[in-house]
Design brief:
Layout lengths: L3 H5 L4 H10 L2 H9 L5 H8 L7 H16 L2 E11 L24 H13 L4 E6 L8 H11 L5 E5 L5 H10 L3 E3 L7 H7 L8 H5 L1 H7 L4 E4 L8 H18 L4 E5 L18 H14 L4 E4 L5 H7 L6 E3 L27 H10 L3 E3 L3 H5 L3
Parallel strand pairs: 1-2, 1-8, 1-9, 2-3, 3-4, 4-5, 5-6, 6-7, 7-8
Length: 372
C-alpha cells in the first residue's frame, strides 16, 4: 500500500453518511462491549443513535484514559510566527483576500514572545503560521527552531504541508510533533473552501501525513475543521486516516484535535452546527475506539466545556493562547487567526485541573532522561 489515498478511495462520502443513519442501538451496545474495536465500531459510536448511550460512553472514556495516561493533563501554548498566507480559505482569518495587517516575527520579536511564554512556565510550544512558502518556509522554520530549542523541552509545529525531505530536516532539528489537518475529507466540496493557493490541492494535503511518517517524526496530530461539513462523516474519515497511519508508521505517536469554527476576520458561517453534546460524544468515541490516542483540547472551546472535559478523555490542553503573531507581547493588535473562547491564564487553568483531581504537566520527562 503506497499511501492513505489508496485506502481513502475505497470509501465514498454518501455511503458513510447513509451507514451512520442506519446504525442501531444494538450495534452501538455491541461495539461498547468489545475488548478490541475497529473503525467500524468508531462509526457506530459517533452515529446519531449512540447519543442515547452518552453517559455510558463518558464513564468508559474516563476509565480508559486514566488506565493509559493516568490523571495528568499536558499543558502547552501556541506561538504564532506569521499571519502571511498565499491561500484563499473561506473560513480563515489569515486568508489572502482579507485586507489586514500582515506580520512575520523577526528573531528579536520571536525571543520577546519566548520570554513571556517562559514567564508562564510554558515548556511545550506549538509553532503556527499561515502558508506563505516564500517568506515563511523551511529556512525560516529551521532558524526559529534553532532559537527556541534551548528554551523548550518540546517543540511542535503546525504549518503548510512540506516535502518528505523538509520534514526530515525538521525532525533532525528537534521537532517533536507535526500537526496537519485535512480540514474536510469531502473531496467534492474541498475546492469551494480552498479556491486559491497550494492548499487547493486535495491530494497533496491528504498525503502529507504519509510524508511526515516516512520522515520519522515522533508524533503526528490530525483533525478536521468541525463545522465545514457533516462532523460525523468527516470524523469517520479522520479516524480511518489515523488507523491507517498507526499501522503504517507504528513507531510514531498520534493525537487528534477538535477545532470548531470560531469567529474570525472574513470567515463563513458554519455549514453544520456541532453542539457541546455532539463534541463530547465524538471525544468519547475516539477514546473508546483507540486507547493510545492523545486527545488535545484548544482554547477555541469555552470555559465550561473545558472544565468538564478534563476528566472525560483529554490528555492535553492549550492555555493562555494568543492566535496572532506577536500576540503575547510584540504586537497585540495584529490579525488573529480566530477568536479564543477560553481566555483564562495558565495559572487559572492549572487550578481548574488540580480541582478536578488531575495533575497539570509542564515538563517533558523524555527530554530530561535523554539528556536533551
Amino acid at each position: 500500500m503506497k499511501n492513505f489515498k489508496d485506502v481513502f478511495e475505497r470509501y465514498h462520502w454518501d455511503e458513510i453518511k447513509s451507514r451512520l443513519e442506519k446504525v442501531t442501538l444494538t450495534e452501538v451496545e455491541r461495539s461498547l462491549q468489545k475488548n478490541r474495536r475497529t473503525v467500524d465500531d468508531f462509526l457506530n459510536l459517533i452515529a446519531p443513535v449512540a447519543a442515547g448511550k452518552l453517559e455510558v460512553m463518558a464513564g468508559m472514556a474516563q476509565r480508559l484514559t486514566q488506565k493509559r495516561f493516568g490523571k495528568t493533563i499536558q499543558l502547552y501554548a501556541p506561538l504564532y510566527l506569521s499571519n502571511e498566507c498565499q491561500n484563499i480559505c473561506t473560513y480563515c482569518g489569515f486568508s489572502l483576500d482579507n485586507s489586514i495587517k500582515r506580520k512575520t516575527l523577526s528573531d528579536t520579536e520571536l525571543m520577546i514572545e519566548v520570554s513571556v511564554l517562559k514567564s508562564m512556565d510554558v515548556n511545550h510550544v506549538l509553532l503556527v503560521s499561515g502558508e506563505a512558502h516564500k517568506t515563511v518556509g523551511i529556512s525560516y522554520f529551521l532558524n526559529a527552531i534553532k532559537l527556541l530549542k534551548p528554551h523548550f523541552a518540546n517543540i511542535s509545529i503546525e504549518v503548510q504541508p512540506l516535502s518528505e525531505e523538509e520534514y526530515r530536516q525538521l525532525h533532525e532539528a528537534g521537532v517533536h510533533a507535526v500537526l496537519v489537518y485535512q480540514e474536510t475529507y469531502h473531496q467534492e466540496v474541498y475546492k469551494e473552501y480552498h479556491p486559491k493557493g497550494r492548499k487547493s490541492n486535495f491530494d497533496f494535503r491528504l498525503e502529507t501525513p504519509d510524508r511526515i511518517g516516512k520522515a520519522g517524526i515522533h508524533k503526528m496530530g490530525l483533525g478536521v475543521l468541525l463545522g465545514l461539513e457533516d462532523w460525523r462523516v468527516d470524523s469517520f474519515f479522520n479516524a480511518l486516516h489515523i488507523g491507517y497511519l498507526q499501522k503504517q508508521y507504528w513507531k510514531s505517536k498520534f493525537s487528534v484535535s477538535f477545532p470548531r469554527l470560531r469567529p474570525a476576520e472574513g470567515i463563513i458561517e458554519p455549514n453544520f452546527i456541532m453542539s457541546d453534546k455532539d463534541l463530547l460524544q465524538l471525544i468519547c468515541a475516539y477514546r473508546i475506539w483507540n486507547e493510545d490516542l492523545e486527545i488535545s483540547i484548544s482554547t477555541r472551546e469555552n470555559e465550561t466545556f473545558r472544565n468538564h472535559i478534563v476528566s472525560l478523555g483529554a490528555t492535553a490542553m492549550s492555555a493562555a493562547s494568543k492566535t496572532n503573531p506577536g500576540g503575547y507581547a510584540v504586537d497585540k493588535e495584529s490579525l488573529e487567526q480566530f477568536e479564543t473562547s477560553d481566555e483564562r491564564s495558565m495559572e487559572e487553568i492549572k487550578t481548574v485541573i488540580r480541582k478536578a483531581g488531575y495533575d497539570p504537566v509542564m515538563k517533558d520527562w523524555d527530554a530530561v532522561y535523554s539528556g536533551v
